[in-house]
Design a protein that fits this description.
heterodimer, A: 367 residues, alpha+beta, 4-stranded antiparallel β-sheet, 13 strands, 14% strand, disordered N terminus, B: 561 residues, Cytochrome Bc1 Complex, Chain C, two-stranded antiparallel ribbon, disordered C terminus
Chain lengths: 367, 561
């Protein structure tokens, strides 16, 4: 690619750049009055500089560069002198102050320099627009066929035509591509039945081993087991977890277990509650428990509207009816929220078994 | 102006420049390359800077991102926060979240860098989108630039994933919710979904591995890939030369503009400074992603109005408006209500964009090289299809904020969902029809301007007393722009001189191609000189329509070989 630069006879400043095509051109029509309409092009100063103009532009650009210099200097001075006063940053207030000073000065430095360079280009650079040829990319047919001949010759010379050689080479190469994938096997455990149960099941088993009927419910964030009388007011909703989970589960596993077993407890008016067939005794006078994990893509369905008894997931607005076995009323979720069987024991609310089905989003093996 | 390179003795080069150039030249023979490229011409148009914004945002992302890695700890080990942000003192949280708070409140300038980084990420994706639309609507992806178009789509895809991983790293409540959705989507994939989920998270959600894994992908693998693609993108652009807008001096065989050195170099340098300056301004004064307000991740908690970064909005919207469809059979479940929105819209946008240049070539049969861009109006089907895609994307994007819309405009949430369920199909259709009509009307006006000139504003009174406006012929510069429209080529002849059907028109595929080609060209309006009604008789009658008889059609000139 040899680009011969040739300067055009008449540098065509793009003076019509901003005008809508089809409207009359001011330049061609009224040349009686305005001779200087052909003055500086917006994209460059043109070949000739007016010395006075240039001097002025130079001073403006220099002033902007000096401003940028002082802004950077200010940044450093502020950083060293002020941002760390009285032993460093102290929370929100100081952070806000230093963020504005540092960012503001940094922006000023960049922008002043940017404006300066722009004015320089537009007012002081005398380069003329030029024309270059666009060359064809493709080689000549002769070159192409010569190259093809070379390739074929190479294949010939190398003995690549021998089938045994070629096939065994492919055979050797194929597993080389696959073998590294095996190393990825240990990225995680196999799914097995992990998604089918939650910690509620294990907690119930532990409680039953101690001779109780089921596990008590504790309010998320506390250790206090919940009594029926604590939750008597219709219309209320809280988030509960199995009692003892945070103590019994290894520390790093708490969030993971919580992500599956987090449950909402709702007190719906008993007269409006329609228990699902076979679940007539899963509630305590309208107190019901559903998995909090939305069956759509797993956000916590955390909003409860007392008047309509709707449970709403704030992520994608799947809506479930709390009075009707958490059936889907609206939105993209395809399944009701799984229900946790409840009972009363010694005045406490207890769960008597795990969720009867996998909680959360659907998956291939779910069935 | 050192035009006289041959008589270079006349020009005194400073020793420092001369010396180092010679030092390099002795070793690489580089001066030949420099000489060929130092004055490389760059055609000018405001829209050509959109890609530059993307490039500079990426550089700023690398700079600020490197800074952030000095303090960020990609670990999910639970610690008790003891930094200078009082409201969270003593709270249990992951080390990732704690170190994000430290960067914000205990590293001087840390919050600024975090905010610039996040703003630059948004600007990066936004400018990629704008750049891509510019390239599409001007047909700049046409031969020989298809590969660079595909590279661009690759970078766009990577940028989205990169952004998702980036804003998931701080492990705050909002980003954890985003991860939870990512997990739910992964789980929904048929056959291998649960395996992908377990292998990605190293066990069940959230586990303890995901942050460090995303961190590696976010700071090493994906930026490395993007950097490689950026380099290829730029080298191809440099080698093929930039496309030009159809203005005077710009033709298929020559390019007109200011030289790389010094003009373009200075301008693009200034542009980097502007991009950084504006991002610094945003970082200083516009709060973004205040993770300290959200608190640490808790799988049982959520805040309403949870929204991802804007470029994930299309996925969010698709998930929201999907009806609850699910198939369960033979002990297996396929969740269409997750699978379709997760794969289909972006698949359509990216797949459609990637296939388009080849589809267009196949339909129009145009295999020539193109260096001068089309004006969008001159390719109505392309422009219409592009606007349909914009409408499709935009409607799904808006649907991602249907709760905000419902709340702000006091309409029922379910009503907004139903509106979007219909709009996503009707909107693109309407956009296509309207855009195509607008394009054709603009073509008509162009034809009219070429034939009759432009209104001069001068009213003439004829001897009979009638008034008419004088029309001036369009200026040569305008004519170059107007006449850049190539009259659409008619259908390829279905039969040759001997009545043998052309091979390309046989069979159902050939038939489809002919149909599509007719749809592409049938309402084309020729914009040509030479068959107006003479100029200057200025009664301005508006018959701009279709006075192009087929015999006179301008033959598209054959470029290339």
């Amino acid at each position: 690619m040899s680009d011969e630069n040739e300067t055009t006879g008449s540098p065509e400043p793009r003076e019509h750049g901003d005008r809508i095509i089809g409207t009359p051109s001011p330049a061609t029509q009224r040349n009686l009055i305005v001779e200087d309409d052909e003055a500086p092009a917006p994209a460059g100063a043109g070949a000739e500089l007016d010395e006075g103009e240039a001097k002025r532009a130079e001073r403006v650009v220099a002033a902007l560069f000096v401003l940028a210099f002082f802004a950077s200097l200010g940044f450093m001075v502020y950083f060293v002198g002020w941002s760390g006063r009285h032993g460093g940053m102290h929370g929100l207030e100081r952070t806000r102050e230093s963020n504005m000073w540092l960012g503001g000065l940094m922006a000023l430095a960049f922008l002043a320099m940017g404006v300066g360079v722009t004015i320089w280009v537009r007012r002081l650079m005398t380069s003329k627009p030029i024309i270059q040829e666009r060359h064809e990319f493709s080689a000549t047919p002769d070159d192409r066929s010569a190259f093809a001949t070379d390739v074929l010759e190479g294949a010939q010379d190398s003995g690549l035509k021998r089938p045994l050689l070629r096939r065994t080479l492919l055979l050797a190469a194929a597993p080389l591509g696959l073998a590294p994938l095996f190393l990825l096997r240990d990225l995680g455990p196999l799914p097995e039945k992990k998604l089918r149960s939650t910690y509620w099941g294990e907690a119930v088993r532990k409680a039953q081993a101690q001779g109780r009927r089921g596990v008590r419910l504790v309010v998320d964030g506390t250790d206090r087991a919940l009594r029926v009388s604590d939750f008597a007011a219709p219309g209320s909703m809280i988030t509960v977890l199995p009692e003892g989970m945070e103590k019994d589960v290894p520390h790093e596993d708490v969030l993971t277990q919580m992500a599956k077993s987090v449950t909402i407890l709702i007190n719906v008016p008993a007269d409006q509650f329609k228990p699902a067939p076979g679940r007539e005794n899963w509630h305590i006078g309208g107190i019901v428990a559903y998995s909090k994990i939305c069956t759509h893509v797993g956000c916590p369905a955390a909003l409860y509207e007392q008047t309509t008894h709707h449970i709403l997931c704030p992520c994608h607005q799947s809506t479930f009816d709390a009075t009707d076995a958490a059936k889907v009323v609206f939105g993209p979720a395809a399944r009701p929220l799984p229900q946790l069987p409840l009972a009363e024991e010694d005045g406490y609310i207890i769960a008597t078994a795990d969720f009867p089905e996998p909680i959360g989003p659907s998956f291939w093996e779910r069935g | 102006m050192t035009e006289t390179t041959a008589g270079a003795t006349a020009v005194k080069t400073p020793k420092a420049v001369d010396g180092s150039l010679n030092w390099l030249d002795d070793r690489f023979g580089s001066t030949g390359f420099f000489k060929r490229n130092v004055k490389k011409v760059f055609p000018d148009h405001w829209s050509f800077m959109l890609g530059e914004i993307a490039l500079y945002s990426f550089i700023i992302l690398l700079l600020t991102g490197t800074y952030l890695t000095l303090w960020f700890k990609p670990s999910m080990i639970e610690v008790v926060y003891d930094g200078s942000y009082q409201p969270l003192k003593g709270v249990q949280m992951s080390e990732a979240y704690a170190s994000t708070l430290d960067i914000s409140f205990d590293v001087r300038g840390g919050l600024l860098m975090r905010q610039i980084h996040h703003w630059a990420a948004l600007l990066f994706v936004a400018s990629i989108m704008a750049h891509m639309l510019r390239v599409f609507f001007t047909g700049a992806y046409r031969k020989p630039r298809e590969i660079n178009w595909l590279i661009g789509i690759g970078m766009f895809t990577l940028a989205m994933v990169e952004g998702l991983f980036g804003y998931s790293l701080p492990d705050d409540l909002l980003s954890g919710t985003g991860l939870r959705i990512t997990q739910g989507v992964a789980e929904s994939i048929p056959v291998v979904g649960t395996y992908i989920y377990m292998f990605l998270f190293g066990g069940e959600f959230p586990g303890t591995d995901i942050v460090s894994r995303m961190y590696m992908l976010h700071i090493l693998l994906i930026p490395g890939l993007i950097l490689g693609l950026v380099t290829a993108h730029m080298m191809i652009m440099w080698h093929q030369k930039h496309t030009a807008m159809p203005v005077k001096h710009q033709t298929e065989t020559q390019v007109y503009g200011y030289p790389f050195y010094p003009v373009f170099m200075a301008k693009t340098g200034a542009y980097f400074l502007f991009t950084f300056g504006v991002l610094a301004l945003l970082g200083a004064f516009a709060q973004i992603n205040p993770v300290w307000l959200f608190g640490p991740y808790d799988p049982g908690a959520i805040s309403s109005g949870s929204q991802p970064d804007f470029y994930m909005g299309i996925l969010e919207g698709s998930l929201r408006i999907m009806p609850p469809w699910e198939i369960s059979a033979w002990g297996h479940t396929v969740t269409l209500s997750v699978l379709i929105p997760a794969l289909l819209p972006l698949g359509l946008v990216f797949g459609g964009a990637a296939a388009w240049p080849f589809l267009e070539q196949w339909i129009t049969g145009d295999k020539r090289l193109h260096h001068v861009n089309d004006r969008p109006r001159n390719a109505p089907v392309r422009t219409g299809a592009g606007m349909a895609m914009v409408a499709f994307y935009g409607i799904l994007w808006l649907a991602g904020a249907n709760d905000v819309i419902a709340e702000r405009f006091h309409v029922s949430l379910f009503a907004t969902t139903w509106f979007f369920r219909f709009a996503v199909f009707l909107g693109p259709l309407l956009a296509y029809i309207i855009t195509k009509r607008v394009c054709l009307s603009l073509q008509r006006r162009d034809a009219d301007t070429v034939a009759h000139g432009v209104e001069s504003g001068i009213i003439l009174m004829s001897p009979e007393g009638g008034f008419s406006e004088k029309h001036e012929p369009a200026t040569p510069e305008e004519k170059v722009v107007l006449l850049s429209k190539e009259t659409a080529r008619g259908e390829a002849p279905a039969v040759d001189a001997n009545g043998i059907p052309a091979p390309s028109s046989k069979g159902p595929i050939g038939h489809l191609r002919s149909r599509l080609q007719r749809a592409w060209t049938f309402d084309d309006i020729p914009v040509e000189e030479g068959h107006g009604h003479g100029d200057g008789h200025g009664n301005g009658h508006g018959d701009g329509n279709g006075h192009g008889d087929v015999s006179e059609r301008k033959n598209p000139q054959q470029i290339g070989h």
